[in-house]
Amino acid sequence: MATFDESGCTHSRYGLRLTLPTGVEVYLQIVAGQPADERRPAQGAPPIRQRSAPLPAAGKTALAAVELHLIDVLTARQDPFVQEVAPLSSSNGSIPYGLRVAFHSGAYVFCYVALLVPAGRTRPLGGLFPSLSHV
To answer: Fewer CB within 10 Å: N-end or C-end of the chain?
Structure first.
């Protein structure tokens, strides 16, 4: 895992690069969805832990499995600021893969799968915000 800045990605100021066990690089752009509501408490019960299967070390990886892996990682922390983490693939939105992270304060952010770079390549596959289901 590395930030966009650490990985040399200039697509956006905020994001993370996740390298899958297969060597594929998934670039997650982080975008604010809604600011906090000062009237709501900042902390509450942490989200329910959602476990996922390990990502494959060879072959293709489903982006829905990457979403579940990230949800597993985020909910494992049991952060009292986080209320819910949901996959974008289940919402049928304009950006097919990523996460919606909701906070007890009423704020939420999106983590969009912005770019996919196959192992051993330097150019993204599928363009910006790809709709590929496997990589």
So the answer is: N
